[in-house]
Amino acid sequence: MAKPIKETPVLVGSEAIRLAKKIDNPRVVTSQEVIQARDAYNAVMSIATFQF
Fold first, then answer.
1. Who contacts 11 (Cβ-Cβ below 8 Å, separation ≥6)?
2. In the prediction, which pLDDT does 27 show?
3. Were 11 and a residue from 5, 16, 31, 32 both cysteine, which residue would form a disulfide, CB within 3.0 to 4.6 Å?
4. Is-contact 50 42, C-beta < 8 A?
5. Do 26 and 33 contact (CB within 8 A), yes or no?
6. CB-side exposure of 24: number of CA atoms within 13 Å?
7. Could you report the per-residue pLDDT of 32-49, keeping only the tens digit for each?
8. How far apart are CA 36 and CA 51, in angstroms?
9. CB–CB of 11/19 below 8 Å?
10. For residue 25, is pLDDT > 90?
């Protein structure tokens, strides 16, 4: 039998404010970071085998 999923804690106070600011002002991603992420994805997908 599966374990029950716990409730997600609610953010309040300074943590909630900090999260809202991060959501409103996302970090700028450089083209180099995009290329690195794409290369990592392609490397993983080249060795992955999925059988559905």
1. 19
2. 93
3. 16
4. no
5. no
6. 6
7. 999 999 999 999 999 998
8. 27
9. yes
10. yes
The token pair at 10 is: 């609610």
The model's pTM is: 0.54
- The one-letter code for the residue type at 31 is S
Token pair belonging to 49: 């085998």
User: What tokens were used for 52?
Assistant: 């559905």
Tokens (6 digits) for 28:
């700028």
| Pair of tokens at residue 1 | 């039998």
3-state secondary structure 5-28: CCCCCCCCCHHHHHHHHHHHCCCC
Structure tokens belonging to residue 44? 């993983």
What's the full length of the chain, in residues?
52
